[in-house]
Amino acid sequence: MTLSLQCYRCGAEYTYIGKSPHSGQCPACGSSCVPPAGSLTVVNSVHWESANGLAKVWVHSVDERDRPFEFEVAAHGRRGKLVAIKVDGVPINPQVDETLETLPPAVKAKIEAQGITDVEIATVTNSKA
User: Fold this and answer.
1) Among residues 32, 36, 77, 35, which one has the least CA distance to residue 57?
2) What is the mean pLDDT of the chain?
3) How many CB atoms lie within 10 A of CB 57?
4) Strand 79-87 relative to strand 90-91: parallel, antiparallel, unpaired?
5) Torsion over CA: 84, 88, 93, 99 (sign)
6) Given pLDDT bands bounded at 50, 70 and 90, which one contains residue 120?
7) CB contact set of 58 (below 8 Å; sequence gap of 6+)
8) What's the whole-model pTM score?
9) β partners of residue 91
10) E runs forming strands in 7-109
11) How many CA atoms within 13 Å lie on the side-chain side of 90?
């Protein structure tokens, strides 16, 4: 298996060749702010909803190298928008890597379980929270 990867911190592009998940670390700068190594597993989620129907969902997951990933979705009814992603606690811009243009299956399933079935991803901004 060959993967083309990009570091979210320094922008370095590199290739991983192998059967197991990649190391989860940028070879150029050593940052852990790189795409998920293998699949993501949801470990926790938090759902908040106001009386007027506005809601937020935070989905906490880990990759196969135990690096934490957090996805934050703001919603109204069944429609939501991905508003932030953190990799290993660091806010990242998912627009720098096309692998984050869709929600990972486990994360998507957790968000859909909250009744949010239509999530917009294209115009993500990072929260500083």
Assistant:
1) 77
2) 87
3) 23
4) antiparallel
5) negative
6) confident
7) 45, 46, 70, 71, 72
8) 0.85
9) 86
10) 13-17, 41-49, 54-62, 68-76, 79-87, 90-91
11) 15
Chain position carrying tokens 């938090």:
46
**Residue 15's beta-bridge partner residues?**
4
One-letter amino acid at 60 equals H
Q: Which amino acid is at 57?
A: V
**24-83 confidence digits (pLDDT tens):** 999 999 999 999 999 999 999 999 999 888 999 999 999 999 999 999 999 998 999 998
- Selection from 117, 77, 80, 85 nearest residue 101 by Cα: 85
Query: Which amino acid, residue 95?
Result: Q
| Burial zone of 84 (CB within 10 Å; 0-12 exposed, 13-18 middle, 19+ buried) | buried
Predicted confidence (pLDDT) at residue 99 exceeds the cutoff of 80: no
Query: Helices in the chain by DSSP H: which ranges?
Result: 105-112
Alpha carbons 125 and 44: distance in angstroms, whole number: 22
